[in-house]
Amino acid sequence: MRKVLMGEEGFSIAEVMVAFLILAIAVIPMAGMFDAAFKVSRVSYDLNMAQECLRLYTEKVKNIPFYYAHTEDDLSTPMDVDDFYWGNRSPIYNNTWNNAPEIVMKSSSSEPYPGMTVTIKMAYVDEEEASGKTLAEAAEDTDLAADWRPMTLYGYDRPKTPTGKALNLILYEIKVTLANGRTFSDTELYASPTDVVANVYIDKVVNISADTTKLGTRYNAFGECVSAPHHKSSITIRAYGEGFTQSDLNAGLVDLKLVRVDDNDISPANLTYGEEGGRKYLEGTISLDSGGKSGPTNVWYPRRKPGYWHAWLVVNHIISVRSDIFVVEYPVPVYYSPGSSYSDSDGNKSGRESSTDEVLTFTNVAYVTDLLSYNYPNPGVGAVVQLVHTETHPDTGEPVDVINCTNMSISPTANKGYQGGLTVTARFNFNGHIGGYYKVRIINCIERATPDINVMGNTYCELPASDNYYLEGPPGIFDVYVKGYVEPGEVYVESTTPQVRSFGYDDRPYMYWLRVEGVNFDSFVTLKMGIGSSAPPTGDVVFDAVRVNWIDQHTLEAVFDFAPYVGPGHYGKYWLYAQNSNGFGYALAPAFEIRRPAPIIYDYQVETYGLWQNYFDVQVSVDGECFDRDPLTGTDFQLRIQEVADPANDWLATEAMEDPVPSQYGRHVEAKLNLVDCDLGQWMFYGLSVPAGLTDYGFTDTLRPTPVTYLTNLNVTLGAPVLRTASVPTDPAQYSLIIMSRYDAVVGGSWMGWSNWFQSIEGTYANIPPWGNIYNAWAWENDPAHGTVEYRTKGEMYFQEIRGMGFNKGSTLSVQVMNNDAPPHTGMNYTWTGLTVHMDRSQAKVWVEMDETMRATTGPDEGGMGRMRLRNDASGVWQDWYINRIAFQREG
After folding, report:
1. Rg, Å, the chain Cα set
2. Which 8-state DSSP code applies to residue 398?
3. For the chain: N or C, fewer Cβ within 10 A?
4. What angle is formed at CA 855 by the lines to CA 851 and CA 860, rounded to 5 degrees?
5. What are the start-end ranges of the E strands in 626-732?
6. Is a pLDDT exceeding 80 seen at residue 353?
7. For residue range 744-803, what is the model confidence (pLDDT) as tens digits?
8. Which residues of 253-288 are buried (b: 16+ CB within 10 A; e: fewer)?
9. 715 Cβ neighbours under 8 A, 6+ residues apart
10. What residues contact 852, with CB distance under 8 A and at least 6 apart?
């Protein structure tokens, strides 16, 4: 990226143009208080969450314009970075970095990342001030014009120096503070994007030293070393990139250096130009054992600070910065095998969880650093001896437990550990840690508070497996969830619930069959559950498992009966305590939630039809818990639906429901849903206890690694219009059709006139010539041109009522009727359109109706029975024919 810089010293353009600026100048996250018994998994979790939070709010800043020229219309509205984050300063143009106010971006009570407070401080940087200084020093030495103000008119809010030079770089620090006081921070450089032009950039910086002792431990995806130990000199590096030439280098127009905020720049010596496979590079040597910045916080002085460094490239005043491109790191601790040794207090490399002061002594080791003494609880800077459990968590792959030493010392101390022949003494507090075998690690740490091998700059060694340490201690519990149910009579029902559940209900007629997963369970392990204090396990309610089945050292299955112990006032999250036969126990708190009885639906299946508007008799199978029915006590439950868009529509969902029966989910019930008068869209499907009026719809199981919320919804959609029964019913109570018809006939050579209207209800048994005994709804035939005069008739009909399902709510229906086979006679073929749809949810009834004014001419019986079909006018799609659904009766 190209950016031309020009000042009063003779450059040709007034502003600095910075291009391809991937500018992340990161400070390794800082931690607060160090607790000896605090597991590294927790530290890693905090670190990961804080880093996610840092990334989020770092990007939020970059999404704000670098500079925005205010108008009178938006003068009171923050628009650019300094509008939001400059804060109160005296005077207002005071461009300080060291004393810049920290502005709150997010309070600890707000989402996302509740419990974390995010602050920002900022200052402008004049790139010409950066020569020979850290960026923090350059920011501190950059002055703003005395008439500059944020959120002002006429360009006075454009950041400029007292000489009028526009500033195009912002240095800012995002800091995340946890509830326990620990802080994590990230410092970034933000360039004005309006001045960016692509041209100059650094792609990567690699360590190509032939001397392997000068290579670091971090490599990129191509297998190239991108790190170096900070106790070495004359390390050869190559910076691959673009925008520079041999002639630029010869003319003194190229400047390359490694930079970070809190240390002096590193300028490679003997810089040369080269090309490899069409790629340009600059090559030189750096020394990391000297030149560091002195000061009370730079305990590595004169060595360079471990961690990420960033490449700063200038070609003819064009600047490009590539962040996090090279790692400066500690030397790797050395445990010689053979040659080194370690022992504990009694020489057997084992201890007990009850020990609070176990001492491990390492002899003849090298490069175990102690730069700032480790006096608990002040961790200082340097090495940590760490015990890492050999078992890993099945979900995360992380060690199930990590024990960090509480104090550490080395001898001799003169070189702070940068030598061989060291004796290292580390003290441990094993209280609260899981039993089993532990690998032994020695980690050189930028901050002992974060003894993480993944922190850039940290290095470590791991002792051979033959030197693993054994801790006699308690088991560990990872997870507790419902495996199934034990029905009365010792009938086990195994659950295959879609969601693994870490909760259950009180006062059930069955016992809960729980699966307990963890590590180091012995075959005589016992389990108890309780609410209240979990260490030691005491409380208001404590009870043992009815039985425990030991599967292996990682898995238990246990039966618990809550009913005798839990009741109103004792609902909540319970701990689970596992105790091995050696007397050591471990409590997972919280482990399982016991709730007051309230219906909850886990799963449902639609067995007939679909979830279609204006359908009823929709058979569903529902699984859940607390489906309680007891006529003696008046206890019952309902399945209900409530419209999400209009909660006032809260209705009993069922026309009929069977009694619940045991199932793999707890309880199973078969029911018929009534979707008459339902609007299209989402409906809550929930259980409600009667008369208590309780439901657990919407309950969130927060004890799962990813919380699970039980929201069972129905999505009501349009279905096809159908008659109430697919075929002619044999019971008039199940009718779909009521036909009104009349006739006229030739008697004595003359038409006699229209008869009264006759009603025919489908499902009524009758003898209908010429069809015989049938249950069809019928109408008088129409055959006015019969060859025999005395057989000539006229017939008319209309549907007094058509009952069905799926007739669109708020719309109209069309109905077509015709003879199956009319020729040689004129057959019936008539269509009624625009019939208003009627609904009665309480009767599960959907229908259309006609009156005498809508009568139509029928057809002859010789043309066969009548067929009919339906159409929702909104869709315009005709459904399949109902064949032989209507009979035509001869001879009135």
Report:
1. 41
2. S
3. C
4. 140
5. 636-643, 650-652, 654-657, 661-663, 666-673, 681-690, 700-701, 708-709, 713-716, 722-723
6. yes
7. 999 888 999 999 999 999 999 999 988 999 999 999 999 888 888 888 999 999 999 999
8. ebbbbbbbbbbbbbbbeeeebeeeeeebbbbbebbb
9. 611, 681, 682, 683
10. 740, 757, 798
For the residues 351-376, what does the mean pLDDT come to?
A: 91
Beta strands across the sheet bearing 547-552:
491-494, 476-487, 511-519, 555-560, 547-552
What does the pLDDT look like over 604-631, one tens digit per residue?
Answer: 999 999 999 999 999 999 999 999 999 9
Apex 815 CA angle, 856 and 719, nearest 5: 170
Q: How far lies 856's CA from each of 794, 795, 822, 882, in Å?
A: 11, 8, 16, 19
**Residue 422: strand pairing partners:** 365
Tokens of 301: 């002085």
Please give the pLDDT value at position 26.
30
Q: How many CA atoms lie within 13 A of 360 on its CB side?
A: 28
Tokens of 133: 């200084």
d(CA 188, CA 167): 16
Q: Is there a contact between 699 and 746 (Cβ–Cβ < 8 Å)?
A: no
Q: Is 851 exposed, middle or buried (0-12, 13-18, 19+ CB in 10 A)?
A: exposed
Q: Classify residue 124 by burial, with Cβ atoms within 10 Å: 0-12, 13-18, 19+.
A: buried
| Whole-angstrom distance, CA of residue 757 vs CA of residue 759 | 7
- Cα–Cα distance between 90 and 559 in angstroms, integer? 69
Question: With the C-alpha atoms ordered 760, 762, 765, 766, is the resulting torsion angle positive or negative?
Answer: positive
d(CA 244, CA 843): 85
The pLDDT tens digits for 407-445 are 899 999 999 999 999 999 999 999 989 999 999 999 999
Helix (H/G/I), strand (E/B), else coil: 527? strand
pLDDT band for 36, please (50, 70, 90 cuts). Answer: very low
- In single-letter form, the type of residue at position 828 comes to M
Q: Are strands 700-701 and 708-709 parallel, antiparallel or unpaired?
A: antiparallel
Tokens 């991108």 correspond to: 226
Q: Report d(CA 662, CA 668) in Å as an integer.
A: 6
3-state secondary structure 589-610: EEEEEEECCCCEEEEEEECCCC
Of 17 and 822, the structure prediction assigns the larger pLDDT to 822
Distance between CA atoms of residues 791 and 734, nearest Å: 35
Total length of the chain: 892
Which of helix, strand or coil describes residue 247?
Answer: helix
* pTM exceeding the 0.85 threshold for the entire prediction: no
Which tokens sit at 379? 């961790």
| Residues 624-652 pLDDT 10s | 999 999 999 999 999 999 999 999 999 99
Whole-number Å distance between alpha carbons of 565 and 506: 9
